[in-house]
Amino acid sequence: MNLDQFKPLTVYTIYIVSTPEKVWEALTSAEFSTKYFSGFAVEMERRLGGSFIVRAPGGSEHISGEVFEYDPPNKLTVTWNVNWPDLVAKLGTTLVTYEIEQAGEAVRLTMSERHDRPLSDDILSGGRTGWPAILSGLKSLLETGKAPQIKMTPPAQMLAALKAMGIKTP
Q1: Which fold has domain 8-165?
Q2: DSSP notation for 2-25
Q3: Which run of H or of E encompasses 125?
Q4: What start-end ranges are recorded for coiled-coil regions in this protein (predicted)?
Q5: Which one-letter DSSP state was computed for residue 112?
Q6: 69 neighbors 75 (Cβ within 8 angstroms)
Q7: pLDDT tens-digit series, residues 49-96
Q8: Tally of CA atoms within 13 A in the half-sphere of 57 that contains its CB
């Protein structure tokens, strides 16, 4: 896969009072992720080329992918493919990268979502709605020990855009 073809269309940076190791563990562990990611569990083989899966609260495979860059506790890139029929075929692969850097007493976590083709704001609204909630939950969990329960649903404009493209959604 050629990284040069992937352009960042969504980027968030957040500062967390924690250590790079704890942020890494929270991003790569089912135990942590279920607490800040609305019950979704991140499962991954902790190695380059390993599998990356996000399971819905009921256990179904919601997102599948592969570990593309693996440099604990500094950088993780995974392919992020939502398991909806025809989605990947029509929208392409998504790359999600987490960059973790010490920033004084905090950690700077930068998350980018990159795509191999231009996508409309309506299509991107799903990630742009979900990522702030996920990252805020992660921050709260690491800083206070408790993550807010944030109900996330796909934005109507994203669902309408996907439907117009012939992509079936839940």
Answers
A1: Alpha-D-Glucose-1,6-Bisphosphate; Chain A, domain 4 (3.30.530)
A2: -GGG-EEEEEEEEEESS-HHHHHH
A3: helix 121-144
A4: none
A5: E
A6: yes
A7: 999 999 999 999 999 999 999 999 999 999 999 888 888 888 888 999
A8: 7
